[in-house]
Amino acid sequence: MKILLFKIGALGDVLMTTPLIKELKKSHTESQIDYLVGNNASKLINNNPYLSNVLIFDENIFFKKKLFGYLKLINNIRKKKYDYIFVLDKHWIFNLTAMLFNIKKRIGFNRLGKEGIFLTDKVYYGPVKHEITYYLELASLLNTEKSDANIKIDIVIPTEIEKKILKFLSDKNIKNYTVLINSGGNNVGESGGIRKMPEKLFKDILDNLSKKTDVLFVGGPEEREYYEKFSGKNIYNFAGATSIIESAVLLKYAKKIITTDCGLMHLASAVNENIISIFGPTNPKRKAPLSKKCISVWKDMKNYDENYELFGKMPEKREFFNEITIEDIV
């Protein structure tokens, strides 16, 4: 049996699908399980032991409506003759694409009961519950044996990369450090940084931490300039200086991680349990790390607009985190 998982991104969303991969492989050990994923998020699952192949495509085929690339993708997948496809995005265009792949059994989400028309088997998507729970519900539609699913996010860190980063930390005498992350809302196809905490709150947290411990920033190249504004004693800016897998090592060995809702929060939850996650426009019941040791801080319940999480529609109110104080976090 040939199974294809299909998701465009983003980093955190793809990481939250890894328990589904593991669950499918546990019940269908002899099956070929491939993952069709956008280029930006592919590096997180390249070494996943439960996957046979990772098939990478340019996500701009969808975001920038590149018709030639879209038709080429459809043709390439048709040739592979999959038996089943799991469509892990919620928009109807991905369900339609799965049908155009000419895969007979199409499993995915029917968002608010309106977007599952091109699927053969579907899970209703809407009520607030964790994204990992939603993904695992899809597995039951493939005659997957019911069991206590392992909800832990998976990521493989090559030994040589781990050793390299640990040597670097040792050489710099960086130890017992905290990772501080202020990101969110800057995925491919999304911009605005709506999930970032206000600069004053971020600086207050940083000032408090840096008096007691080394503080590391991690992130992408586009965030390096932002973090440069907060340079100081015991503060290290690794944004843009490490790959996503190297960042995973920094997160793994952190004494504590304080982060907003972003891809790195989910990466952190794969390698560390000492996480304080800070939420604004998003609901921690959908996205927060699931370890019992993790703490979520959220004080924007009255401002919550589910259309942001359901459809990516920007809330009319753009100011969040204002009721959170430093005492809630450190």
Automatic annotation (TrEMBL):
Gene Ontology molecular function, alphabetical: ADP-heptose-lipopolysaccharide heptosyltransferase activity
GO CC, alphabetical: cytosol
Entry keyword set: Glycosyltransferase, Transferase
Pfam family, one: Glyco_transf_9
UniProt-listed Gene3D superfamilies: Glycogen Phosphorylase B
Superkingdom of origin: Archaea
Family annotation (PANTHER family): LIPOPOLYSACCHARIDE 1,2-N-ACETYLGLUCOSAMINETRANSFERASE-RELATED (PTHR30160:SF1), TETRAACYLDISACCHARIDE 4'-KINASE-RELATED (PTHR30160)
Protein's UniProt name: ADP-heptose:LPS heptosyltransferase
